Amino acid sequence: MNGQILRAEEFGGEWKRVYTYGDGSCFFHSLAIVLFGQVYADATKKDQIEVGHQLRNVIVDEEEYTNFLKAQGFLSVPGVVQPHEAGNVTTHADEALINFTAKRLHLNLCILVSPTEKYVREVDEEAPWAVLAWIKRFHFEPIVYQELSSFTAETGLEELPELPKKHYLVEPTDPMIVWLKK
Questions:
Q1: DSSP the chain
Q2: Which of 40, 81, 83, 124 has the CA that lies 20 to 30 A from 146?
Q3: β-bridge pairing 117-121 and 108-114
Q4: In what order do the strands lie in the sheet with 139-145?
Q5: What is the pLDDT of residues 63-100, one digit of tens each?
């Protein structure tokens, strides 16, 4: 779980990018690292993969995702991950599934593609943040502080276990989040 320390001036040597499994669920593995912190890090590789897949299954409620796509006008649109595909652990997350996940978890997301390109999904200005790298627009890995956070955080899903006291979520008032939102 040791990550590559980010040396860019903006990260000040305090952030790292953490490896995730590239099995089609890397977006959900990245969120599992952010949400479950040391608990995830201490798990075996097999258990880490299972946690990422279970997180995906909890988030992707087929009926709710169908309603979300209908409301957005994306149900049955070619190229958009559809409800029957969304729970498949080998199906890559697309913009619709990412937005649905942010809404369902009540979690703000900043997805960094390059030094000049980022996507910000802010569902609530008071909700915690997760920062993810989208490497070559194919693979997600979380970008986290080197040290775990300990502020009290909750997700919007009752089906998830209570978050551990130590996690990698970022407070909405954190200077990095303020900078990333610009």
A1: ---EEP-SGGGTT-EEE-----SS-HHHHHHHHHHHHHHHHTS-HHHHHHHHHHHHHHH--HHHHHHHHHHHT-TT-TTSPPHHHHT-TTSPP-HHHHHHHHHHHT-EEEEEEETTEEEEE-S-TTS-EEEEEEETTTEEEEEEESSPB-S----S-TTSPPPPSSB--B-TT-HHHHHHT-
A2: 124
A3: antiparallel
A4: 4-5, 15-17, 139-145, 129-135, 108-114, 117-121
A5: 999 999 999 999 999 999 999 999 999 999 999 999 99
Which residues have C-beta within 8 Å of that of residue 48, sequence separation ≥ 6?
A: 21, 29, 32, 40
With contact defined as beta carbons under 8 Å apart, do 34 and 142 qualify? yes
Tell whether pTM > 0.85: yes
